[in-house]
Task: structure prediction
Amino acid sequence: MSAIFVILTEPHSLTGTFMNTLLSTDALADVLKTIRLSSTTYFCTDFSSPWGMDIINANQGLFHVVVKGSCFLQLEDSSQVLTLHEGDIVAFPTGANHWIADQQKSVRLPAAELVEKVLAGENPFQAPDTDSSSQTLLCGAFEYDAAMQHPFLKDLPCFIHIKAQDTPDLDWLRAMINVLSQEARTPKPGSSIMVDRLTEVLFIQLIRFYMQTNSADMSYLAALADAKVGKALNMIHGEQEANLSIERLANAVGLSRTAFSEKFSALVGQSPKTYLLHWRLQRANRQLQQNKLSMFDIAEAAGYSSESAFNKAFKQCLGFTPGQARRKKNKPLA
Result:
């Protein structure tokens, strides 16, 4: 990783080149890399009525896309039964319990059992001759390091519903889903990579949609969408050495230090100082696992002049030592 050398002509100013470097970083993209987002599509298949599945104890994010037909869905803690129409997309970023079926009273199978059968070519809900009463469903999952302590994960919504009839501007997304469904149904060379990448694009669009439609929320997702706090987050995530201060962030977004700190804390749920320090340590954790820099260089880039001070702060923030982080290199998610 190359270092960025900056000469500050004024105590609280940022040079143009440095500012452009900071703002060129997308905070959301950086967070998704750090939490190690990965996505997969389980299946895209036809179900002939009656059919249904129960999804319980999900320890990962889930999604369903109604490719053809309509069906019903209900969350475990809700009395409302939702009708899903062709083109609708629903997601459960935190894996909420729910059921989905062609009718409210249809017999339902546990989701894990159904996925296993479908992937084995033994779809229990597919009639020998698909008729007009069949529905096509695309289902998959989002995985990430849920153990990571970050406001993004804490503020993920339980449920997102993109209704086809209300979002004609997202026709491009449905065209992409058509490609995704075709690749999932009839695999070709390279299909597995295409399916996983397109599913990741779907997750990002779901988050974007939620940010746009819930901008009044006091959450990390609202902070990303906020003109001033979002700009500050991009600057924090673009920092490569410990050069930023709260004063510089406040000046860059055109707020006083007090007003900036209050607005940032209200949306993010952490003070800008806490977020900045914690993110530097998260960046250090990623660098340690890449195993390309010395411990001292990583500590210095995080703003610590001694390894002992760095070790103490790192352990306090992340719950494990820098040495343990280095040994986690390329360790898969549990």
The CA atoms of residues 289 and 330 lie 7 Å apart. The chain has two domains: 16-33+226-327, 37-213. The first strand starts at residue 38 and ends at 47. The chain has 14 helices and ten strands.
